[in-house]
Amino acid sequence: MTRLIVAAGGGGDAVAAAMLDTALYGTQHPAVVLTYAWDRLLVDPVPGPRTPADFTALGRMAPRVPVITADTEPVPPAGSTLPRLARELPQTFALTDPQHGVQGITVQLTELVEQLRPESIDLLDVGGDILAHGDEPTLRSPLADALTLAARHRLNTPVRLLVAGPGLDGELPAETLHPLLGPAVAAFTPEHTAAVDSVLEWHPSEATAMLAATARGIRGLCEARDAGLPIPLTDESPTVHEVDMDAAFTRNILAHAITATTTLTAAEALSREICGFSEIDYERDKATRLPTTPLKPLDPESTLTRVAAYEHKARARGATHTTFRHLTETLSLPGTQRDTLKSLLLTHHPEQYTPPLWHIPPTTKRR
After folding, report:
1. Which helix (H) or strand (E) holds 130?
2. Secondary structure (3-state) at 165
3. What's the pLDDT tens digit per position in 61-79?
4. Which residue in 23, 189, 211, 226 could disulfide with 165, CB within 3.0 to 4.6 Å?
């Protein structure tokens, strides 16, 4: 028995796919997960998605479908979370390669279906931005989802579209998504997150971290991403909904426009035209601001003081939680110091750790 789960946007969607696999299908036959190697600059200092040429020791599931193995490593200076996921999780991670545009991804999907003959195919998006028109002012990363959605539209095989954690990616508000969602097919529980608990200790995905946190019962308002977006953590947050695939494609203007693309460059140009931006351009611009000098060790006292100052302001905004990525960025620290910051905070205030989020207490604590 083989299940195929396509992680629409890569990154944390691949981790969520492992949770979904457990929630819907159990643990006896781990799924194949097709996913981008598209981590943010916190992990990968090279803008955009990685291609097979960016990795060593890849396996092969089909002629154009590479597989991340336990021996796979990114080729410096590129970085990727996928090799570690492959070592720590039972699912098989195949690599989506967008360098040949939608047509290339369609070929990959076709080869996978012919090779695996899966009993089910699920296309999973965490947050729901795959349902965007493409011109919403809150959109930040529409291209990856649109590429995957357009490729699915070209595939002559039934695929179920699932949205987990409506609104948790901070791109489309949950109230905007609710009329578009179909029936709930699952609600994540602590039992389902247990499969990825150890991964979420190091993986930087914020949307999937919030998804897991809400599955464990955490509720409140979480500040996330570099902009400090306020994201409600509600009873609806850990749910998974089926969505009409054809309606999603009809709605997604960018997916329509890029359907015939044969290069990522062409798809990116259409994203600029339709959405007004390319998320890869944003990464390119941000990459130019990454520090090039050796990092100074964190000073514990001053760092804790700065965290306390942030918490004071965040508390006034109504925030109850934040992500470690947001803490790292709001303190203007490089992504490579995220784990150091987390260790420092857990050493001094372990009571504020509500895995995998950081709790902002209702009153100021002495540092």
Report:
1. none
2. coil
3. 999 999 999 999 999 999 9
4. 211
